[in-house]
Design a protein that fits this description.
Layout lengths: L12 H15 L8 H6 L4 H9 L1 H5 L43 H4 L10 E8 L2 E11 L17 E3 L10 H7 L10 H4 E7 L5 E6 L32 H4 L128 E3 L3 H5 L4 E4 L7 E3 L5 E3 L1 H10 L18 H13 L9 H25 L20 H9 L6 E6 L3 H13 L8 E8 L2 E9 L2 H10 L3 H13 L4 H8 L30 H19 L12 E8 L3 H14 L1 H4 L9 H5 L2 E3 L4 H14 L3 E8 L22 H6 L2 H5 L3 E7 L17 E3 L4 E2 L2 E2 L5 E4 L1 H7 L9 E3 L1 H13 L5 H20 L11 H16 L7 E6 L2 H17 L7 E5 L9 H11 L19 E6 L12 E5 L10 H9 L3 E4 H7 L31 H4 L20 H7 L17 H25 L48 H8 L3 H6 L4 E4 L1 H8 L18 E3 L13 H11 E3 L21 E5 L12 H18 L18 H19 L1 E5 L26 H5 L17 E2 L19 H4 L3 E5 L16 H4 L10 E10 L4 E10 L6 E3 ...
Parallel strand pairs: 6-8, 7-9, 10-11, 13-14, 13-15, 15-16, 16-30, 17-30, 21-27, 22-24, 22-25, 23-24, 25-27, 32-50, 38-39, 38-41, 39-40, 44-47, 49-50, 49-51, 51-52
Antiparallel strand pairs: 1-2, 1-4, 2-3, 4-5, 7-12, 11-12, 18-19, 20-26, 28-29, 31-33, 34-35, 35-40, 36-37, 41-46, 42-43, 42-47, 44-46, 45-47, 48-53, 52-54, 53-54
Helix pairs in contact: 10-12, 11-13, 18-40, 18-41, 26-27, 27-28, 27-29, 34-35
């Protein structure tokens, strides 16, 4: 159904259903046949569902149409160019051009000279919506009270600078800096008269009644179906519903006929008249609140004339005598300053926290035509105030008794919004898709009202969705039609169905209403709405509308658009809707006024006769036995708390890792924090308690051992008037400690979101707006070391279009289950709202969610009797009466049962009997929620008096819980608690509700909202019958129900059969957590549909008529305390004795059954834990878990006992059937709700979600559009957040209102996070496997941080959705602190040297331990140690030097290939100030070094080619240097062409403290992020030359991460080469450069030998360097002591460079650091041995010794052997050591061997790395050399079988060292002439390895060595041809036998140049 044009139907659906309905109504005997509307829209239709599914994407993109602001007429806006201000004048908003302040708030108390005949008025500036500007205007140019007689023109003075004589308003507006975009008009900008109040302060008075200026006449066009809509007067601003602001009230003394505003009741001066509920979130000004003192108002606000007074003044064009008068002051029109993007303000007609009205007011929109007089005594006669909802068209004036009616614009707003066309659909052509016609809107509204039950109240959300679905159905069908045609060719075919015309509308509406038994009455008018309203008032007075709840008045004619309004006349509906228009503060004021003025005395006297004074005798409830069910359980952190903490940490790391550099974690050394909580004393003490017992202050090092309460209080801030002092200290600390990361935790973050600007008005409380004033202050936003964490279970108000929090910075509470799998191994399940809803479905033992029908009936009856009293007052007095009567009934006055309800009787009896059933007196808690504090005080006083008169003062306590004060209980009960909790402190008093565990009590919980107070496990009943059911938003509703949310043991939960099977599977689905109790985690609405294919009927046992609990099973499960509530309604005539005895008998049986259940589930039973250590989390603990007593190092000032003994399993079971508290702790509490709230929660929308999920999320936000899609059941929590971010906007009172920017990303604060707790309404159960995997991996990671801390666990509490929020964020602080410490630590290899037993033990020491440098001549005498001692070569072949005996077991295969990395031993070291860093480090000192300095941009580097020839490669080598501008001074360039010539080298004789002579080369691959290339700190700031050697394909990524480093790019042919190639090219390049520098500097007169010949080759994992300091000051020369400390690399290099005769050494290195340093190494300060990892290479001496460019592994060992055999000196400084960091990525691990033919990653073993030539073996995509080396490492025993573990007979390796594995020894010899080789005499070899032999290897050389018989030979060559040539040239066949099958090759394809092997046996 839908309309393309006004009233033109596009489908036959409506006509068909209409005919069917008419026929059915004629034939039916039923009084209420099925309405048409139900058939059309209230059923889920498959067709529509499929259409909706198809258009989901479209719907989610819908936006409301925005129109440009119009001028005051209907003509287009006139652009206005403001005259530029004079030079030098002030242009600040709120000041005149002379610089004087004109704002009312600033000069209200100043004396202002006003000339005679002038008046002070307030002008509105569009740039200052919150302020009025004070002006003095000649009153002749202002209108009178009727809006007439204002002279044309203007005359005014500036009150700021005193300038007079402004004759033009344009000139005046320029002077006062109005800065207008349209033509200045006095009617538009002079808004209010200003008057002095009783205190003499200037305040805003009545509105200036300009005639016709504010409004546009209504003009209708049937061709476009878009009326020129009413305009909201700018003076009205956003309504009170938006901003809680008051408009000036009318003069109470004004004549009734002219009074504009009326009070809500008959006593208070009206607080506000209301303006429209529409608001666009753009330019509407906020109203300044004014006090209710109206005595100073001198000009009453009036309606104006009721008839046209003649033609308007000249300038008003387009007037005709027929045009309706627009003299009204209050109307429903949209602000002309505001685009037509209207936002629906209210949540519902029945649940509008601030909707439509600040207070019930009269006639907010008055229109044209004759006036309508409201009859006198209307309220007295009708017993209710009718609520009039203005609909379409003009609305008449109301006069007379305006106090007795309420007018609301909400329905008009809904109609208006539903007619705006979303831009998302404009692409299809606006001409074909039109909004719903006004006729159809009204008809749909009538259908909706018809189907409402008598106890239901209309919801605006329902109506919006009805319009939305109707429009979409029409829209989608038209789009299909439109898309099938060609738009350019065919115009849309008009439908053949006649539209619903305005003439047909009354008939159709009457027809629809005919079936509702006169619940909806239709009044048709022929001329105007005035006659219909008059008739309605007449019918009301005559009593003819007694059965009518809604009156629909329609004025329709053929030649103009319809006028309509809807009047709510039903007493119940009118009361609920009128009360819903009160803001929470006005609701409190109203109730308080009725109490103060004694208006409730009549109600009190009504009940006074019902309470007798006699005192029945009471039984003694004490016993000698002791109940042992009161246990302390071990505090432990829950897995999901760890998961949340880890997610928080992950987000912090993400912020730090982002390129924006908004958080530099590396610069922080410690953590500090401040927790902000609402101003509830109980919440404050509760948070202090958690913080004290968490131990976090000690762990973070913020406090010392002996904590005091005063010290703990420094870290928790209550958001009250004293908060600013503590917050100022926090800010000062953050500024004084830049290296401390401050975490600002805003707990219960949804509590106060008031704008600080709004809260500056005098009417607001001092504490409101504090969050905005403190947490959003500039200092917090700009501080780089403050992270703000908002924590809430209700994040909706922080998820708007203007939020400060990025969606990427939201952390959602993880799901505990995924596809039925418990992710956390948790023995608790959360019992939240969805489980409560499920308990109301049939098939359950008893509903846990109930309403009390007898209570509701009595309230409704009394509401009719006392119509002037607020329903909250009536409900409270009725409930007090019920509790009083129930107490009397339990005490023996059975006749009192007639004055209470079954529900209240059940509660009271279980409460009173509970303490008698336990030998220790443990009992139940009953929470009686009374939001209004004055009413709570009345309830407390009356119940207290009744308890005293009944002598029950020792049986149970009554506690008044006020958020602003602590807990007060009787001395006797305090002593009981101290005994139970084993507390010895004499002065102890309970400070939190958690400490009331087991105390039988009624807790009267007051305060408009819960503020995070946790409730104990002994809570049994949660009585919410008094919550404000008429003013509900989603947050409010979920907060209230969150009081009963409960953690229950999994086994017991399942046994009760109330657990929801469908558990949330997306760990990212979140809602949020808050302090301890107010959060509700609910599964998707009608979860039963997911559990069963058939929808189950809702259980009928929720009211007093059926809650008799007839089922014994249900009694057993939930009501075993036994109560008279077990009687059915029919049993109420029984005597008290019969009732009590029968129920007691049942109870005994119930106990037996319960005992059996307990025995079965004993292992999972819950032990009691009083000191509630954290949130309501650990409700039940496995009884088998060890009961650890809590001990404190210092006595705690908080409520927990120092220690508590544990109960045993047996005693627990014995007491189960006796102690009520024990049973209570195993069961969720029972919740009683108002009927209206119950209906909202248990009903579902068309998507199957609870209707509560579609309510307005928060009172200070509003919907961005009526055209918004419904939430989906499959929404994850992230999607829910995005939904609210798209579809809600903050009101002006919201602190995020001004957070707007065209570029949306700019409005997110980078260091602000939102932790939202467990899902309240589980919107679906989407399966996100990826998220689950991520969460699981997080859990593995968490184990790193978990350690053994168990102190974060929340206490066994049963009332919060937070389920451990406080514990989670305290754990987050802990792991964040550990991570910061971890960032300053590094894992370094810590391994002892290997092959120590092979090392020659010698008593001879060549140097003294204290020698700083080696003596050259002495060093030449030190023999070379061939043995490898570096632990990284543990798997390498041993190098034999002579005949030696080695135990074969010593060289066993200790590690497998895959274990080589993981099993190396590391230790964690704190980074010193001399460490090398990777790219994640960026402190201020090294910004310039890293290239982050603005002077050095990324593009400021140049690429230079550098070529040299090398004969061994047979070709010229061309390398490329990337040289940043900042490093060009290290190089020499040719002058004309800037060609790179050489790299500058210093002289040997140069000496400088701040200069390192040796260039450092670092080859690297795969470690652009993790390589330790930042040597700034290691070099201690010294100037040095550092070159990164990278492969060509990695050049770009390295350049990105290291923009200020010099890069040496290897040729592309080396892209797949190993580290040998890099070393080879570094050395050859350096020698070539040395030659170039010698030549260059020789021209300058410098000798070639004076040029510095050394370079440093360093691994990319060298992190720190150490030096040993030896003290030889002992008595004997051999005595010495030594210490090792971290030193800078600069110190080490400068020391080595200063070595005497340093140029005579070829290689200089240092030890690998190990924690166990060998004292022998210290004793001998210098060694001649292998050097690794960090070496200084003399490129001059080693000119003829090359690295093997083909090598991947062991190339440094191979090179060391070559250098030594060449007779060169290798020196290791044993007093220096290098630490190597463990880096898990890059390096050798970047080489992967995979198949060349398949992309599928298949594991290939090293045995497959070689194959027979010409075979069909799978070729591998890997370098041949790598395959060779890997094969020999793991399978060389196949070539050398005799060599296996035969260390006395090694393999002879000629000119090379190849790793043959740890079980084979090798002997290295060089074939070069004059080389140094070991003496081989006496050695017999088991094999011979010839690897790529060159010409130096000749047959005679090989014949000098002796081999075992059967020894094997392996010859390796580049190709098969050279293999044969080698065999011939070396005459190998003389001594070796070869077979054809002994030829092999590496498994490479021919184009990859495989290596070939030939093996043979020694003859």
């Amino acid at each position: 159904m839908g309309n393309s044009y006004a009233g033109q139907l596009k489908t036959t659906r409506f006509e068909e259903v209409l005919h069917n309905s008419i026929e059915a109504s004629l034939r039916s005997n039923n009084l209420v046949p099925r309405p048409i509307f139900s058939q059309l829209y209230l059923e889920a239709e498959q067709q529509l569902s499929s259409l909706e599914a198809g258009s989901r994407a479209d719907n989610e993109e819908e936006e409301e149409e925005e129109e440009e602001e119009g001028s005051e007429s209907s003509s287009p806006p006139i652009s206005y160019q403001m005259k530029p201000p004079p030079e030098g004048c002030c242009t600040t908003d709120g000041f005149c051009q002379a610089g004087k302040d004109l704002r009312l708030v600033s000069i209200s108390n100043e004396h202002i000279e006003v000339p005679s005949g002038f008046l002070l008025v307030g002008a509105k500036s569009p740039n200052l919506p919150d302020h009025l500007l004070v002006c003095a205007v000649d009153k002749r140019f202002l209108p009178d009270d009727n809006g007439r007689n204002a002279l044309l023109g203007f005359s005014g003075n500036c009150v700021g600078c005193g300038k007079k004589g402004f004759c033009y308003f344009t000139e005046f507006s320029n002077h006062i800096n109005l800065k207008l975009a349209t033509q200045p008009k006095k009617q538009k900008h002079l808004k209010y008269y200003l008057v002095r109040n009783a205190q003499g302060a200037l305040t805003k008075g009545s509105v200036i009644c300009w005639k016709g200026a504010e409004f546009r006449s209504r003009q209708s066009s049937s061709s476009t179906c878009s009326s020129t809509l009413f305009q909201l007067p700018e003076s009205s601003g956003p309504s009170g519903s938006l901003s809680n602001e008051s408009l000036p009230a009318a003069n109470p003394n004004a004549p009734a006929g002219t009074q504009q505003t009326a009070a809500a009741t008959d006593h208070i001066p009206p607080t506000a008249a209301f303006s429209s509920a529409v608001y666009n979130g753009k330019e509407s000004p906020k109203q300044q609140l004014v006090k209710n003192n109206l005595s100073g108002l001198t000009r009453p606000s009036v309606l104006g004339t009721l008839t046209n007074s003649g033609p308007p003044k000249k300038r008003h064009k387009g007037w005709s005598p027929e045009s309706p008068s627009s003299t009204e002051t209050w109307n429903l029109q949209l602000n002309p300053q505001v685009p037509n993007r209207i936002k629906n303000d209210g949540g519902s007609l029945s649940s509008l926290p601030h909707s439509a009205l600040v207070g019930p007011a009269s006639s907010p929109m008055v229109g044209s035509g004759e006036p309508v007089s409201v009859p006198d005594n209307l309220l007295k006669i009708c017993k209710a105030k009718p609520v009039i909802f203005k609909g379409h068209g003009n609305f008449p004036y109301l006069c007379g008794n305006l106090n007795d009616v309420i007018v609301s614009p909400l329905l008009y707003t809904c109609y208006r919004n539903s007619q705006s066309l979303s831009r998302a659909y404009e692409q299809y052509g606006a001409s074909t898709i039109q909004p719903i016609s006004e006729e159809m809107q009204l008809l749909l509204t009538v259908y909706y009202l018809v189907q409402l039950a008598s106890d239901q109240v209309p919801l605006i959300e329902d109506l919006e969705q009805i319009f939305m679905r109707s429009w979409r159905e029409s829209h989608l069908s038209e789009i299909r039609q439109y898309q099938q045609a060609i738009p350019q060719t065919f115009s849309p075919v008009p439908s053949q169905i006649s539209p619903v015309t305005s003439a047909q509308l009354p008939w159709l509406a009457g027809l629809a209403a005919s079936s509702c038994n006169d619940s909806v009455h239709i009044i048709e008018c022929s001329y105007s709405l005035a006659e219909g309203l008059s008739e309605m008032f007449k019918l009301l007075i005559e009593g003819k509308l007694i059965k009518t709840n809604y009156v629909v008045i329609i004025c329709a004619s053929r030649n103009r658009a319809i006028d309509s309004c809807i009047v709510i006349t039903g007493k119940y509906q009118a009361r609920v809707l009128s009360e819903s228009m009160l803001s929470p503060s006005d609701y409190q004021k109203e109730v308080n006024y009725q109490l103060v003025t004694g208006k409730v005395e009549t109600l009190g006297s009504f009940f006074s006769t019902l309470c007798p004074v006699n005192k029945p005798t009471m039984l003694n409830g004490t016993g000698a036995a002791v109940c042992t069910s009161y246990d302390i359980e071990r505090h432990q952190i829950r897995p999901f708390q760890l998961a949340v903490a880890q997610k928080l940490l992950s987000h912090i790391c993400s912020i730090a890792d982002s390129s924006t550099q908004n958080l530099d974690l590396g610069s922080f050394e410690k953590i500090d924090f401040l927790i902000c909580v609402p101003p509830s004393e109980v919440t404050y003490q509760q948070t202090l308690f958690h913080l004290w017992h968490s131990g976090i202050l000690l762990e973070l090092g913020l406090e010392k051992e002996h904590l005091t309460k005063q010290r703990v209080e420094q870290y928790v801030m209550k958001l009250d008037v004293e908060a600013q002092i503590k917050f100022k200290v926090f800010l000062q600390n953050s500024m004084q400690n830049p290296h401390t990361l401050f975490v600002l935790i805003h707990d219960h973050a949804h509590w106060d979101l008031m704008s600080a600007m709004h809260s500056l008005y005098p009417q607001t409380e001092l504490s409101t707006g504090l969050v905005d004033r403190l947490l959003n202050c500039r200092e917090v936003k700009e501080a780089p070391n403050i992270v703000t964490l908002h924590v809430t279970s209700f994040p909706y108000a922080l998820q708007t279009q203007h939020t400060h929090i990025s969606p990427y910075n939201e952390i959602h509470w993880p799901s505990s289950y995924s596809n039925g799998v418990d992710l956390y191994n948790e023995n608790k399940k959360y019992f939240g709202l969805s489980e409560f809803i499920e308990s109301t479905l049939s098939g359950h033992s008893i509903p846990l969610l109930r309403y009390d029908s007898s209570f509701e009936a009595m309230v409704m009856a009394l509401g009719k009797r006392f119509p002037r009293l607020h329903s909250a007052v009536i409900r409270t007095f009725v409930l007090i009466q019920h509790y009083s009567a129930a107490m009397m009934a339990v005490c023996g006055l059975s006749q009192m049962k007639n004055y209470t309800s079954v529900e209240t009787l059940e509660i009271t009896q279980n409460l009173i009997n509970s303490s008698r059933q336990c030998p220790s007196g443990h009992g139940l808690m009953v929470v009686l929620r009374i939001p209004c504090t004055p009413l709570a005080a009345v309830a407390y006083e009356r119940l207290y008096n009744v308890r005293e008169r009944l002598a029950l003062e020792d049986n149970f306590e009554i506690i008044l819980g006020n958020p602003n004060s602590g807990i007060t209980i009787g001395k006797r009960f305090v002593e009981q608690l101290k005994v139970w909790q084993k507390i010895e402190d004499v002065d102890w008093r309970p400070q939190t509700y958690l400490e009331l565990e087991g105390l039988p009590c009624i807790l009267i919980f007051s305060g408009m909202d819960p503020q995070g107070e946790s409730l104990p496990r002994s809570l049994r009943y949660c009585d919410l019958r008094l919550i404000n059911s008429s003013s509900l938003v989603r947050t409010t509703l979920e907060q209230e129900l969150g009081l009963a949310a409960y953690f229950v043991s999994s086994e017991i939960h399942a046994e009760k059969a109330v657990v929801n099977d469908v558990l949330e599977s997306d760990p990212e689905k979140l809602s949020s957590t808050d302090n301890e109790d107010e959060e509700i985690a609910t599964e998707a609405g009608s979860t039963s549909e997911k559990r069963s294919p058939m929808k189950r009927e809702r259980s009928r046992s929720h009211d007093s008529a059926s809650s008799s609990l007839s089922s014994k099973a249900s009694i057993t499960a939930f009501c075993s305390e036994s109560s008279p509530a077990l009687i059915t309604t029919g049993d109420t005539t029984k005597s008290s004795h019969q009732v009590l005895s029968s129920s007691a008998e049942e109870t005994t049986n119930n106990f037996e059954r319960q005992k059996q259940k307990v025995d079965k589930g004993a292992q999972t039973m819950i032990s009691k834990h009083l000191p509630p250590v954290s949130e309501q989390l650990d409700t039940k603990q496995n009884i088998k878990s060890t009961q650890i007593s809590i001990t404190s190092s210092s006595s705690s000032p908080f409520s927990s006992s120092s220690s508590s003994s544990a109960s045993t399993h047996n005693s627990f079971i014995l007491q189960t059937s006796q102690c009520s508290m024990t049973k209570t702790s195993k069961q969720p509490p029972i919740v009683f709700l108002p009927k209206l709230v119950y209906d909202i929660i248990t009903s579902t929308d068309s998507n199957g979600l609870p209707k509560s999920s579609s309510l307005l999320p928060y009172h200070s936000v509003m919907w961005a559009s009526s055209f918004r899609p419904l939430m989906s059941k499959m929404m994850t929590c992230t999607e829910q957040s995005l939904y609210y971010r798209q579809w809600t906007v903050p009101k002006p009172i919201h602190m995020d209102y001004n957070n707007r920017n065209e570029s949306r990303m700019d409005t997110f604060h980078p260091r602000r996070l939102l932790l939202s707790g467990p899902p309240q309404q589980n919107i679906g159960s989407g399966n996100k496997e990826k998220s689950q995997h991520h969460l699981t991996s997080c859990l593995w990671t968490i184990s790193i941080f978990s350690m053994n801390h168990h102190w974060f666990a929340d206490h066994n509490l049963k009332t919060t959705a937070v389920i451990g929020k406080t514990g989670a964020y305290l754990q987050f602080l802990s792991i964040l602190s550990r991570m910061l410490i971890r960032l300053t630590e590094v894992d370094v290899y810590d391994e002892e040297e290997i092959n120590i037993n092979v090392k020659e033990e010698s008593d001879k020491y060549y140097h003294q331990p204290g020698d700083a440098w080696p003596d050259l001549e002495t060093f030449k005498k030190i023999p070379f140690d061939y043995t490898i001692h570096d632990p990284k070569y543990e798997d390498a072949s041993l190098i034999c030097t002579k005949l030696q005996t080695i135990n074969s077991e010593d060289r066993s295969m200790s590690r497998r290939q895959e274990d080589m990395y993981t099993r190396r031993q590391t230790t964690r070291m704190r980074l010193s100030k001399y460490a090398a860093y990777n790219t994640y480090h960026h402190c201020e000192q090294c910004h310039q070094y890293m290239g982050f300095n603005p002077r050095y941009q990324l593009y400021e580097s140049t690429l230079h080619a550098f070529a040299f020839s090398y004969s061994m490669l047979g070709e010229e080598i061309q390398l490329h240097f990337i040289i940043p501008k900042s490093k060009e001074h290290h190089f020499v360039f040719s002058q004309p062409g800037r060609q790179l010539e050489s790299m500058r080298l210093p002289l040997v004789t140069d000496k400088s403290e701040d200069y390192i002579k040796s260039p450092t080369f670092t080859p690297t691959t795969g470690r652009h992020e993790h390589g330790l290339f930042n040597l700034y700190h290691a070099m201690d700031g010294a100037s040095h030359l550092h070159v990164l050697v990278v492969k060509e394909y990695e050049m770009a990524i390295y350049k990105k991460y290291w923009p200020n480093h010099i890069m040496l790019v290897l040729p592309s042919i080396f892209n797949s080469a190993g580290v040998g190639a890099a070393h080879f090219l570094i050395k050859e390049l350096s020698y070539h450069n040395l030659e170039l520098e010698r030549n260059r500097q020789e021209e300058l007169g410098i000798k070639p030998q004076d040029i510095w010949p050394f370079i440093v080759i360093s691994d990319d994992s060298c992190v720190m360097w150490n030096a040993v300091e030896v003290d030889c000051s002992g008595d004997r020369k051999s005595d010495y002591t030594w210490t090792e400390r971290n030193v800078s690399l600069k110190q080490i290099l400068q020391h080595i460079e200063a070595t005497p005769n340093v140029t005579h050494y070829a290689l200089i290195g240092m030890r690998k650091w190990a924690s166990k340093t060998n004292s022998a190494e210290i004793k001998e300060p210098f060694s001649c041995c292998h050097v690794h990892d960090f070496v200084m290479l003399n490129v001059d001496l080693t000119q003829n010794v090359q690295y093997n460019q083909n090598r991947f592994t062991c190339d440094d060992v191979d090179f060391n052997l070559r250098v030594h055999s060449a007779g060169l000196l290798i020196c290791q400084f044993n007093h220096f050591s290098v630490m190597k960091k463990q880096i898990a990525v890059g390096g050798q691990r970047s080489f992967h061997v995979k198949s060349k033919v398949s992309d599928t990653p298949v594991s290939i073993s090293p045995a497959q790395y070689i194959c027979a030539p010409d075979s069909k073996h799978t070729f591998l995509a890997a370098p041949a050399q790598l395959l060779l080396e890997k094969y020999l490492q793991y399978h060389s025993h196949r070539f050398f079988p005799l060599s296996l573990k035969n260390y006395n007979h090694p393999v002879l390796s000629v000119d090379c060292y190849l790793n043959l594995g740890p079980q084979i020894a090798v002997c290295y010899v060089s074939s070069r002439p004059h080389s140094l080789n070991i003496s081989s005499s006496g050695l017999t070899f088991s094999g011979l390895l010839l690897y790529l032999c060159d010409s130096f290897v000749v047959a005679s050389f090989l014949k000098k060595f002796h081999f075992l018989k059967g020894a094997t030979l392996c010859v390796i060559c580049q190709d098969r041809n050279s293999l044969r040539q080698t065999v011939v040239r070396l005459e190998l066949e003389d001594e070796w036998q070869f077979r054809l099958r002994d030829e092999f090759q590496t498994a490479n394809a021919k184009e990859d140049r495989p290596l070939f092997f030939l093996t043979g046996r020694h003859i």
